[in-house]
Amino acid sequence: MSRHHPDLVLCMKQSGTRVGRLCEKCDGKCPVCDSFVRPTTLVKVCDECSFGKLEDRCIICDGYAVADAYYCFECTRLEKDRDGCPKIINVGGSRTDLHFQRKKEGQR
């Protein structure tokens, strides 16, 4: 997700022991490069991103999580799985602009 949307901000704190989870829409994606190819290493998220209401939420789109997240083989080989927590902590400028545009037009 972060590869295609440069305005998204990742948490990048030191990873903890909890496994990152993905929703049905994002199931199978690598959280770093959006690849669906050769999932290899289990994603670990930091303690702040894994407790409370965030425990059962997708690390990419914040939907209801149903499956474990995995890094692809290429990101594991390049050691991007050691950069830190891959949870996206903002929704991005384009999604925020779309929300307020729809609200202004009275659609929502």
UniProtKB/TrEMBL annotation:
Native source species: Yarrowia lipolytica (strain CLIB 122 / E 150)
* Gene Ontology cellular component annotations, sorted alphabetically: precatalytic spliceosome; U2 snRNP; U2-type spliceosomal complex
Determine the domain of life of the protein's source: Eukaryota
For this chain, the family text in UniProt reads: Belongs to the PHF5 family.
Descriptive protein name: YALI0C08030p
Q: Which Pfam families match?
A: PHF5 (PF03660)
Q: Which GO terms describe its biological process?
A: mRNA splicing, via spliceosome; response to xenobiotic stimulus; spliceosomal complex assembly
PANTHER family recorded for this chain? PHD FINGER-LIKE DOMAIN-CONTAINING PROTEIN 5A
